[in-house]
Amino acid sequence: MLVASPGMLVASSGMLVASPGMLVASSGMLVASPGMLVASYVMPVALPGMLVASHGMLVASP
Predict the structure, then answer these.
(1) What domain count does the chain have?
(2) What percent helix, strand, coil does the chain show, rounded to 5?
(3) Using one digit for the tens of pLDDT, what is the confidence trace for 12-54?
(4) What is the Cα–Cα distance from 20 to 12, expressed in whole angstroms?
(5) Which of 44, 49, 53 is nearest to 2 (CA)?
(6) Considering the domain boundaries, does residue 1 fall inside one?
């Protein structure tokens, strides 16, 4: 299951393919570029207008 907005990212069961300058996730762990977000699985972290990450699943907001 994956949801992505244009220019954001595509996530799939802990694996994700990101656009340049966005973020890279691996096994539910996220490493974000400046101004994005840093989140670990289980505890979702969201920044205004950015993304919501939870347990390897990503939902991108425009």
Answers:
(1) 1
(2) 0, 45, 55
(3) 444 444 444 444 444 444 444 444 444 433 334 444 444 554 4
(4) 18
(5) 53
(6) no
